[in-house]
Amino acid sequence: MHEHDVVVVGAGGAGLRAAIAAQEEGADVAIVSKLHPVRSHTGAAEGGINAALRDGDSWEDHAYDTMKGSDYLGDAPAVEALCKESPEEVIQLEHWGMPFSREEDGRVSQRPFGGLSFPRTTYAGAETGHQMLHTMYEQVVKRGITVYDEWHVMDLAVTDEEDPADRTCHGVVAYDIQRGEVDGFRASGGVILATGGMGQVFDHTTNAVANTGDGVAMAYRAGVPMEDMEFIQFHPTTLPSTGVLISEGVRGEGGILYNEKGERFMFEHGYANNDGELASRDVVSRAELTEVNEGRGIEDEYVHLDMRHLGEERILDRLENILHLAEDFEGADGLTEPMPVKPGQHYAMGGIETNEHGETAIDGLYAAGECACVSVHGGNRLGGNALPELIVFGKRAGHHAAGKEMGEPEIPTGKSGDWEPAEYEFEVAVGTVGDRGPAAADGGAVASDAEGLLEAEIERARERVEDLLARKGRNHAEIRSKVQKTMTANVNVFREEEGLKQSLSDLREAREAYTDVAVSDPSRTFNTDLIHTMETRNVLDIAEALTMGALARREFRGAHWRKERQERDDENWLKHTLVSWNDGEPELWYKPAILEGEAKTYEPKVRSY
Amino acid sequence: MSTQIPKQTEKADETAAETESEAPSKGDERRAEKRRRADEQRRQREAEEAERAAADENTVELRVFRYDPDVEGKQEPRFDTFHVPFTKGMTVLDALMYSRDTYDSSLTFRHSCRQAVCGSDAMFVNGGQKLACKTQIDELEEPIRVEPLPHAEVTKDLVVDLEHFYDQMEAVEPYFQTNEYPDGELEEQRQTRENREKIKMSTRCIWCSACMSSCNIAAGDNEYLGPAAINKAYRFAMDEREGEDVKQKRLEIIEQEHGVWRCQTQFSCTEVCPKDIPLTEHIQELKREAVKNNLKFW
Q1: In this protein, which residues make up the domain named Fumarate reductase/succinate dehydrogenase flavoprotein-like C-terminal (chain A) (predicted)?
Q2: Among A26, A215, A520, B99, who pairs with A193 as Cys (CB 3.0-4.6 Å)?
């Protein structure tokens, strides 16, 4: 068994920043990740990092834009923390050597992004995430922080008190992919989940194959509520054949969207008369799909994004990476022709419920980055707001886990503040299926002390691996594919009651099928069949919680659109959706959004661009 | 065969010895049975696939290197054949994923982002180092031969051990160092656009290790830093924000016995780099810098 003060799960932007912060506070910290750090999907982020750095801009304006972008479902204390601390974090990255794009005077460049009232997106070409990830990994190497790479974390070691608020997390159990062994990582200070996105729940996504929401699912099964899971961002410009992302930076620099008739539909069809292509992402995605659905799409599938008029010099200077992506993955030359684009799953606004220190409802368990819901993005994330979230809240979680005194949080977790039960009755059963074999194991092991708990969890994880390797059954790939297909068909940009119910019932079938899952590769060496099979369980749990939230929320807010009620309903829905696993019988409940900030209250206004 | 046969390491022997010393458990028996079944299924699948491929011309044939030190029947390296239905825009990675998810879930390779930024899926395709995710099938001759990267120890199938590569990357003090920061609290260091442009290509490295695998010198000298690590050193040595004294230290590191002077400018690294980094030029420039620097002290 390994022992550290702080154990960080995941080595993307949030995980690396958390580890550095914990070490700064004097903690012995280790990172456990199923990928080597530089393989993390933060590296695929293109556009930039929002930070109010310049005269004429202010953190208050950034907070206002973020709140409006969130469709008033962000929590003000989190939003304000993000906007206040992002500038110093960006400067910190610059001091660590990050190669930002520069102005003539040598200062870091900023560009306009969708939904922003000031050009405050700092960037490094169209490869900002790559530069940020590598810059932070360099710091991890410099500091000699221990990294256990290619270790797949299977589960959390959490005590099993009846009320999740009384439980404590003492560490994690993980599977060493290279050597095929299970071991435990005890964390006396805290475990920080930074496992990133969950895009593999859908089949057309900008996310990596590794983005299976492992941390989210682990926390969920351990008793931490999932918050606002129904809010999924569909990015308006992804390549149709692969889902590869074409940065919002293209529109930020002046790129234009056209339909089949050559109309600049964002204006000509009145979707966003002021901001056009630079309206918020949810607005542009719906506009594109409406064009396609009404017969004005190209090949009935996509629209065109044209940047030719920007000129070769500007494109090469600021968007060079886009030329390579369009060429390599779609065979389009962005210098001489428009690029085909359509909406694709991009980002999960929801996730593990945390407060502004990164703490979850379970003592000793933290989350930061895309896997967490703090919530700064509410119903819709603004472009350029994901990367600052990683560094601001990664750092906060790292500091808190290492014991830094940070004051009383304003955001309640679990059922500690105001909350109300949901009245919604699901027609399809959700949660655990029938007899729980080790393959579908959940809930915690029982032990009286931390060490005993870890030992018991290790044993349980070993049994699960042995069982999956030994049993006969079906391959996980068909189950995962079924989940992805129904989610993409029914829980996409446009959602309606019947489709959502269909999805829930398809997911039930997939869950039943999963009880019969088996790994056919018997190997102890780099058994990706085994890893993918365990991931698919996570994908299933997340897809279900997401669909439950989408069914219950009968309104149109941010990225969540419902046919049955196509307007925002502030009277009934100015609240967060929460789903608790509840030991296998998921429970839906709500808590109010916090709109009262430090100096002002963010009054909900009509959101137009 | 261009793929080197992996060494039968001590580790493998140890595993075998351990297995012998214990009586076979129920689990072992089940697994042995599973292996037999898997072998049988493989033969059957290949026959079926070949039949289907003969009937339908629109499939591509892949010959994929297979090896697993842990599984009976795979300890001797071999090539398996997969027939994959071709779709427009299909990459080598797409074909491998299809083969794994449809025919053989034990087919093993690293991959994650699918867009040439995570650097996981460098492999040896038709005799060249390529990123599988950005290599279009229709640009390759069939049958497509897919092997693990040469000059690295094979862990299993297309997965190689990257520890040595990571060690070299980390040997060049691969992190920004400076002794001077601006005074203002929220003030960045200034960098000219020209200087940023100068280091830009070098910062694009995704650590895929294709260059290291292609390099004859690295193959013969295990201590040679290799193109990727030297490029990383270049990225910092040329960054004007670091200052002269730090640059001195960097030049000392890259000038060591197994540093820049080992490079024989064969350009193989530059040719295979999926991010088009002019690696050989960077190494040459560092050689010139080192010479200039040494002259200064004479």
Answers
A1: 480-609
A2: A215
Rounded to whole angstroms, the Cα distance separating A15 from A307 reads 35
B chain contacts of residue A470, beta-carbon cutoff 8 Å: 27, 30-31, 34
- Residues paired with residue B61 on neighbouring β-strands, in sequence order: B83
Chain B interface disruption, residue of A38, A40, A316, most B CBs within 10 A: A38
Residues B114/A244, Cβ–Cβ less than 8 Å: yes
Candidates B14, B176, B232, B234: best to mutate against A (most CBs of A within 10 A) is B176
User: Does B17 score more than 70 pLDDT?
Assistant: no
Nearest to B190 among A44, A106, A125 (CB): A106
Residue B60 sits at φ, ψ, to 5 deg, of -115, 150
Half-sphere exposure of A385 (CA within 13 A, CB side): 35
Identify the residue with better confidence: A151 or B184. A151
Is the Cβ pair A43, B175 closer than 8 Å?
A: no
Q: How far apart are CA A124 and CA A109, in angstroms?
A: 8
Question: Amino acid identity, residue B255?
Answer: E
Given A17, A281, A562, A568, the catalytic residue: A281
Q: Do A97 and B207 touch (CB under 8 A)?
A: no
**Contact residues, chain A, for B155 at CB < 8 Å:** 178, 525-526
Return the residue matching tokens 């509520």. Answer: A225
| Architecture of the structural domain at A2-232+347-413 | 3-Layer(bba) Sandwich (3.50)
What is d(CA A596, CA A492) in angstroms, rounded to the nearest whole number?
32
CA distances from B246 to B236, B249, B251 (A): 9, 5, 9
Contact A259, A296 (CB under 8 A): yes
Taking the CA of residue A318 and the nearest CA in chain B, the distance in Å comes to 11
The CATH architecture of the domain made up of A233-346 is Alpha-Beta Complex (3.90)
Strands A372-373 and A351-353: parallel
Q: Return the residue of B nearest to A331 by Cα.
A: B89
Distance of alpha carbon A97 from alpha carbon A83, whole angstroms: 22
Find the CB nearest A38 among B119, B173, B236: B119
Backbone dihedral angles phi then psi of residue A598, each to the nearest 5 degrees: -65, -45
Token output for B157 = 């199938």
Give the β-pairing of A587-592 and A575-580: antiparallel
Q: pLDDT tens, B181-235? A: 998 889 999 999 999 999 999 999 999 999 999 999 999 999 999 999 999 999 9
ipTM surpasses cut 0.85:
yes
Q: Does domain A438-568 have CATH number 1.20.58.100?
A: yes
Domains, chain B, ranges and CATH? 47-159 (3.10.20.30), 163-177+192-296 (1.10.1060.10)
* 8 Å CB contact between A439 and A468: yes
**Burial of A405 per CB tally in 10 Å (0-12, 13-18, 19+):** exposed
Which among A375, A317, A330 has a CA at the least distance from the CA of A348?
A: A375
- When pLDDT is averaged across residues A489-513 and rounded to a whole number, the result is 96
Question: pLDDT category, A438, cuts 50, 70, 90?
Answer: low
Q: Which residue ranges does chain A devote to CATH 3.50.50.60?
A: 2-232+347-413
Q: Nearest Cα to A245, choosing from A299, A285, A185?
A: A285
Q: Supply the pLDDT for residue B30.
A: 66
How many helices and strands, by DSSP H and E, does chain A display?
Answer: 16, 20
Ranges for all domains in chain A classified under CATH 3.90.700.10: 233-346
Q: What is the pLDDT of residues A227-247, one digit of tens each?
A: 999 999 999 999 998 899 999
- Rounded CA separation A12/A369 (Å): 9
A179 assigned to active site: no
Amino acid at A283: V
